Amino acid sequence: MCELDQLIQNNEKWIDKCTHDDPDFFKRLAGQQNPDYLWIGCSDSRVPANTIVGLEPGELFVHRNIANMVQQTDFNCLSVLQYAVEVLKVEHIIVCGHYGCGGVQAAIGNDEHGLVDNWLRQIKDTYHANQSEVDAMPTPEEKVNRMCELNVMEQVQNLAKTKVLQLAWQRGQKVSIHGLIYSIRNGKLNDLNVTIKGIEQVDPVYRVKETTRLTRPTVTPSENN
After folding, report:
1. Catalytic site residue 63?
2. Fewer beta carbons within 10 angstroms: which end of the chain, N or C?
């Protein structure tokens, strides 16, 4: 059996189930996607975005990377963000981390892991800024888990500092940023209560000056997206 045969068989079973439950499922899905949410999460295979929030394909626009990072030099993430905000008009952007994140654990240690150390550097900066609190946690597991929470909070702030979000708020667009954390141990999703809903919640140092060029040409999503 080919290494992918099981996946192909699983796909056929999934198609049968979807069309049995809803004969028009794929016909409807092939139309224009219209999600209300952008999910920025960790690449960890144990954190399937749609599944843990109970949403169907087409209802959640997803971007994932190691340790759910939002970096101002990551044009992949920023391109996803711009498309989600300016074209799909999502109203909610969710940064979701998870307890026990290996990327966070690697970032707060001193071992060498290769190229990923450059990617995780920002988490080390967050650890440095909160080291007294984190190191006071009673166990190594709790230390990592607190850093996972702090990392989500930092990425929410990083999102609010992007031009994409600030220009959207200046246009009067309704879009909020939320920070959530997921427990692989019990499947529970927790709100960290760090929601940002407008530019007034951004420190003035990071605000983009309002200009008259606040609109962009309308882009129509392809039916294949």
Report:
1. no
2. N
Is 98 known to be catalytic?
yes
Domain of residue 58: give its range.
34-103+147-202
Q: Answer yes or no: 42 catalytic.
A: yes
User: Please, which pLDDT band fits residue 212 given cuts at 50, 70 and 90?
Assistant: low
- Within a domain: 15: no
Catalytic residue (one of 28, 46, 121, 216): 46
Domain annotation covers residue 126:
no
> What does the CA dihedral 101, 102, 104, 107 come to, rounded to 10 degrees?
180
pLDDT tens-digit map of 71-120:
999 999 999 999 999 999 999 999 999 999 999 999 999 999 999 999 99
The 10 Å CB-count burial string (b at 16+, else e) for 183-203 is eeeeeeeeebebebebbeebe
- For the chain, how many structural domains are there in total? 1
State the catalytic residue, choosing from 77, 101, 146, 148: 101
Q: In Å, what is the CA distance from 18 to each residue of 13, 26, 52, 62, 145?
A: 9, 8, 18, 21, 37
